[in-house]
Amino acid sequence: MIESASSSSNFLRDLIETDLAAGRYDRVVTRFPPEPNGYLHIGHAKAICANFGLAAQFGGVCTLRMDDTNPTKEDIEYVESIQDDIRWLGFDWGEHFFHAADYFEQLYRYARELISKDLAYVCSQTNEEMRRDRGTVIEAGTASPDRDRPTAESLDLFARMRAGEFADGELTLRAKIDMAASNMKLRDPPMYRIRHATHHRTGDDWPIYPIYDFAHGLSDSVEGITHSFCTLEFQNNRALYDWYIENTSTLRPRPYQYEFARLVLSWTLTSKRKLLQLVTEDHVQGWDDPRMPTISGLRRRGVPPAAIRNFCDRIGVSKTNSIIEMEVFEEEIRAELNRTAPRRMVVRDPVRLVLVDWPEGTVDPLELANHPSADLGTRTVPLAGQVFVERSDFSDDPPKGWKRLSVGVEVRLRGAYLVTVNEVLRDEDGRILELHATHDHASRGGDAPDGRKVRGTIHWVPTEPSVTMNLRMVDRLFAVANPGEGDADFLDELNPASMPITEAVGEGALRDAAPGDAFQFERIGYFAVDADSTAEALVFNRAVSLRDTWAKASTAPTKGKSKARSAPVVAAATPSAEELAALAAWTEVGVSVETARMLKADAALDTLAWDAVLAGAEAKDAANLVGNELVRALDGRGTDALPFGGDAIASLASLSADGTLNQRGLRAVLAELVMSGGAPGEIVERLSLVQLSSDALTPVITAVLADHPEEAARLAGGETKLIGFLLGQVMRRTGGKADPKAARALLMQSVAGTRPSTAGKAGP
RNA sequence: UGAGGUGUAGCUCAAUUGGCAGAGCACCUGACUCUGAAUCAGGCGGUUCGAGGUUCAAGUCCUCGCACCUCAACCA
Question: What nucleotides of chain B have any atom within 7 angstroms of a protein Cβ?
Answer without folding.
Answer: 1-8, 10-15, 18-21, 24-28, 34-39, 47, 49-57, 61-76
